[in-house]
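Structure tokens please, single chain.
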Amino acid sequence: MRAARLQLAAVLTLFAAVCGAQAEVIDDILRSLSKGASFLERQHEHINLDGVVGFIMLQAELKEAVRTWPHSDPVSWAQRTTAVALVKRLDQSFEKAVAALQQNDPKYYQEFEPLLSWRFWLVPQEWSSTDSSLVYPSTTTTECYDEQLSDKCLTLLLGTWKMNGTPCIVTKPCRDTMTRFGCPHYSLSHQMLYFLIGKMVRRNKRNCIFVTSTSLTVFLFPSQKGCSNLLKGDTRASRANMTERSYEKIFCSNMMKTNQDIMKDGLTQQTVDIFIENILICGLAGFSDLYKADWLQHILRLQDEEVGCFGRDRSIISQIIGDELLEQLQPHRRVKRREKILPDGCSSHITAVAVSALGGYLNYYLTEQDITKRPLS
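Here you go.
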């Protein structure tokens, strides 16, 4: 009996230590996100579309965290209160940020408006893991396609390719490009993003159209299943048994390998953006093994203590100030969606992916305690 009591005491002590360490990590994440929210409050008029979308992803993750937060003890309850306050602060900033986007970049605003609502983004309810056996034997030495093609395929999914456009259109060029194997870096992450957005649109739209060179077919589904099959019309025998989730697992397994290689070579200013983007996108797709504790610490250390952004380069501030003055003189000049360096040297894109990745870490740490939501084999 005494041995059993000692064993139970040891287990309880270990459990308390684990819970205490996890509470500290959650505090670190919330502290970092609070600084990120302060950055948005100051820079809401200057952040580009990708930057705003990243913070809106964070808002979806925070709202889900608040909804499901296990507040059984005073420490956890206080953390939830902090998260609620963050949600309110972000809500106040979004209205101003979205209004500025609509004025400064009306074309991109129209094309990606559906992404500018936290309700669009679905937070994972269960977790799975990547598979190293799915890693490509080799990849292309250059990107498989450019940002313009990626944007075109996404607007066809979103239904924003024209005013009142039909959503969930999958053209053969888009399908072939977004299912191509062996793509590296941003081509790979945007292939994954394409499938992820198709899954999000599914909750909001009704029609799915597949276009070939000779025919156009319309598939009708309940509204919650909009883009229910992005692979319709793929006649390749080698892909006959592939599902959307099959592609997601292949892509994220390779994105995991990319991150492992980056860490092996050492995180640099050139690789930090894709490193965090991979964590964000695959985490949002439910692949929990990218939420590594040491990778989290790398992200947290990237935050500038003074202004709260991520990826700040002080050496180019004077150069950027000149660019910003030019932009003010030409207010409707097209702003590149992917990246914008702000007057204080902050990276809009890196900051966006960092805060939304941190929101993913937060939800994972909260749901990991629930055995029904641990990684599936």
